Amino acid sequence: MNFIQEYRTKLTTAERAVKVIQSGDWVDYNFTLAQPVALDKALAARKNELVNVKVRGGFSLRPLEIVNADHEREHFFYNSWHFSPYERNLSDRGLCNYIPMIYRNKPLFYRKSLEVDVAMFSVAPMDKHGYFNFSLTNSASRAICEKAKIIILEVNEKLPIALGGQENCIHISDIDYIVESSNPDLPVIQSAEATDTDRKIAKLIIKEINNASTIQLGVGGLPNAVGKMIAESDLKDLAIHTEMLVDAYLIMAKAGKITNRYKNVDKGKGAWAFCAGSQELYDWVDRNSGLASYPIDYTNDPNVMANIDNLVTINSCVEVDILGQVTAETSGSRQISGTGGQLDFLNGGYLSKEGKSFICFNSTFIDKKTGLMKSRIVVDLPTNAVVTDPRTQAHYFVTEWGMANLAGRSTWERAERIIEIAHPNFREELIKGAEKLGIWRRSNKIS
C-alpha cells in the first residue's frame, strides 16, 4: 500500500473539509491539545449556513472561534467534559454547558451511548506505516473515532509522538479527510507557585510515601507542590500512573526520582492518558520509551490500580463537609472544573496493596466579595453543590493542620477527625453543627 498516495487523495483544505457538517450534527473536538485550530476557524466561518451544530470538547486551552462567532448559540452550541479556566468563563456567560462524567467512563459513553456525526481534531504527522499519533491526548480519542461517521484530522507538526500503551494512534485507512494546519505553537500551562501552606500540606503527605511508590497527581497547584517537594526529598525509584501528565513528573524525573523500576503493572514505563504543561514537558514526551500513552478507561480503572502496589493518589478539592463529602468541581451551583478522575483514583488508591488516597486542601480561603476568611470545611455543602466524592469513599483528608484517616469511620469519628484539621477559628462553629446533626460525642475534645 502506498500510504503517501492515499494521504494525497484525502488531503484537503479546512474550508472544504468542514463542508461535510450539516445543521443539527454532533461534532466532536476532542480534549485539550487535540482540539482543532484551522478546522474550528473554518467551521466558524460557516455560521450563516448552519443552525444547531452541537459541539463536544473539553479542557480547552485556546479560545474557540465557533464560540466567538456565535454568542447567541443559535448556530453552534458548545459543551465541555471538563472546564478549563477559559470554559469556566464561557459557562459564567452562558456560552458553554458541562457534561457530567466520571472520567474512566468517557470511552464507554462514546461506544455505548453517544452520537458523533463528525470527529475533527489535531494529531501528529503520519508515520511511514500510515499511522497518525494521538500525541498528547489519548484519553478517549480512539473511542470517538470508532463512533464517528466522518473523521477529519488536522496535522500539526509541533505535536510530539507519544508512544503506547494502547489506542495511541489511528491508521489512514480509517479516516476520511486530512488537513495540514499552519502548525501553531502548543498552548502551555504555567505551574502555580506553591504557598507556605501548600508546602506544609505537601510535607505531611510526603511522610506517607515510601520508596518505589507509584504516584498519581491530580490537577491543581497543591498536587504539583507535592511533586516538586518529592523532587527535593530522599525518596527514590518512584513510578508514574496518572490520567494527566504534568510538569511535576518532569521535575521528579530530572531529579532522578522516577525510574518505574519496581512497578508490578507496566514495569519500566510511566502510564498516562493526556498531557498539558510546559513546552519542555511536551518535548520530554516525544518518543520517550519510558512513558506509555493509554486510554482513560485503562489509567483510571480502579481494577487496574488495584494491581499496582504502593499506589499513592494525590488530589485537591474546593470544600468538604463534616460527614466526609467532597466537592472538587463546583462552588455552590457554579461549575468551575469537572469530576474528572478524582473518584477513580480515590477508589483505586485505596484498593492498591499498601496504597493511599489523599484529598488535600487549604483549610481556609479569602472570599473575594467580602474579603473575609472562610473555612473550606463546612457543616453542610452549599445548596446545589455537586458531591464529587461520596463520604463512603473518603480515605485521607489533609490540610495544613493535619491529616484525617476516615476509612471505615462512624459519623461521629468522621466529624471529630475532620474538625481536628479545620482552622482553629472555625472549630467551635463546626462542633455546634455536628451537635445539631447528632454526630458529636460530648466526650470529644479538640484543642
UniProtKB/TrEMBL annotation:
Database matches in InterPro entries: AcetylCoA_hyd_C, AcetylCoA_hyd_C_sf, ActCoA_hydro, ActCoA_hydro_N, Butryl-CoA_acetate_CoA_Tfrase, NagB/RpiA_transferase-like
GO biological process, one term: acetyl-CoA metabolic process
Predominant subcellular localization, coarse grouping: cytoplasm
Pathways involved: Lipid metabolism; butanoate metabolism
The Acetyl-CoA hydrolase/transferase N-terminal domain, residue ranges: 5-183
Active site: E243
Pfam family, one: AcetylCoA_hydro
Domain Acetyl-CoA hydrolase/transferase C-terminal: residue ranges: 277-433
Protein EC: 2.8.3.-
Compartments, as annotated in UniProt: Cytoplasm
Catalytic reactions on record: butanoate + acetyl-CoA = butanoyl-CoA + acetate
GO MF annotations, alphabetized: acetate CoA-transferase activity; hydrolase activity
Entry keyword annotation includes Amino-acid biosynthesis: no
Enzyme class of the recorded protein, top EC level: transferase
Amino acids binding CoA: G218, V219, G220, G221, L222, V318, G341
Keyword vocabulary terms for this entry: Cytoplasm, Fatty acid metabolism, Hydrolase, Lipid metabolism, Transferase
GO cellular component: a single term: cytoplasm
Role noted for this protein: Coenzyme A-transferase that converts butyrate to butyryl-CoA.
Family: Belongs to the acetyl-CoA hydrolase/transferase family.
Protein name per the record: Probable butyrate:acetyl-CoA coenzyme A-transferase
Lineage: Bacteria, Bacillati, Bacillota, Negativicutes, Selenomonadales
